[in-house]
Amino acid sequence: MARQIRTDQDAIEWLAENHPGIAICETGRGQFTSEIRECRRCGGSGIFHWISMGRRVAGGCFGCGGRNTEKLIHTRVLKRARQLRNNETARLRKEKKSRDRVAANTASANALFEDSGLLRFDAFIAKAYPSEEAADGAREGRDRHALNILQDLDRKAQTWGSISENQIALYSKLANQITDAIESGEASAEAKVATPEGRHEITGKIISIKHSDGEWGITCRMTIKVETDAGIWIGNGTLPRKVYGQFDGDTENLVGRTITLTATIERSDRDDAFGFLKRPGKAMLATEGGAGCSSPQLKSAPGSAPEGTRR
């Protein structure tokens, strides 16, 4: 229960206990506090800003004369003690209300992410990256934009206790993309082999799909990982029209699928383990479970040039 302040003596005792820096002076009219407070016009800076002729100008504060303080303030001890006590009570009540709101929003956000099968941002970072150094590198590297969006969505959920279904879907999509990118990066650390050259039939796993709007309209390109007994190599080329039409342009579910196609492979000048897939055709997707599809392999297409030569 808050202490009652009914008399000047109660006020003096309360001020001495809670605000020992406030001086108290005795006058013929009673007891008063004596304080020098910051100027309420300039906030203690000594400079006042105002608008003149549509322009923002600044000059010495006319309230305190640029001295950063107002003149000495005298207030009756009873009035001043009650003011300070009421201000502190209001502050404590506001802080408690804020803590209760944060706790309720946190519980609501945790339940929302748990029901959606997602991890909160901090938990996702801890799971996705093995160390703080790796997480810091990702924030400045390839995944920085996606991570910024994830963090912003997590903050919105924390602030309001919930986010919309579309925002949940975006969070899930970006989290999956980051996870797939990390997995593909780990795969790139595997033993690499030089790509073959010429026209071949190849089987590999689609690791990314990208759309670009160019001079000839929208182009959809895929990146596949081809595994061999000696190692892996990466190929990039246009998604065959047969596959694109089969999914009616909705290619998001293609990542992770196994595809078999015939293409002319041109080895990159910068990376022997990377090749461009020209004129892809005869494409066939494996079923979701991989049934009916043999292990990734490489075959020379009929009439193709021998491996190691260009057509």
**Category from helices, strands and their pairing:** alpha+beta
Number of spatially distinct domains = 3
Mean pLDDT: 80
Largest sheet: 5 strands, mixed, barrel
Which strand order do you get reading across the main beta sheet? 6-7-8-10-9
Query: Which term fits the overall shape?
Result: elongated
Terminal CA distance: 91 Å
Strand content: 25-35%
Strand runs, count: 11
The CATH superfamily of the largest domain is known as Nucleic acid-binding proteins
Estimated radius of gyration: 35 Å
What is the structure about, briefly put?
This protein has 7 helices and 11 strands. The chain has 311 residues and is an alpha+beta fold.
Walkthrough of the structure:
- The chain is of the alpha+beta class and 311 residues long.
- It folds into 3 domains: 8-92, Chaperone, DNAj Protein, Chain A (Ribbon); 116-188; 198-300, Nucleic acid-binding proteins (OB fold (Dihydrolipoamide Acetyltransferase, E2P)), CATH 2.40.50.
- It is built from 7 helices and 11 strands.
- The protein has helices at residues 8-18, 77-115, 121-128, 132-140, 144-160, 165-188, 241-246; strands spanning 23-27, 30-35, 47-52, 55-60, 73-76, 198-214, 217-227, 232-238, 258-267, 274-285, 298-300.
- A 5-stranded mixed β-barrel has the order 6-7-8-10-9.
- A hairpin with a 4-residue loop joins strand 7 (217-227) and strand 8.
- The longest helix is centred in the first third of the chain and has 39 residues, at 77-115.
- It is elongated and about 105 Å long.
- The relative contact order is 0.08.
- Mean pLDDT is 80; it is low at 290-311.
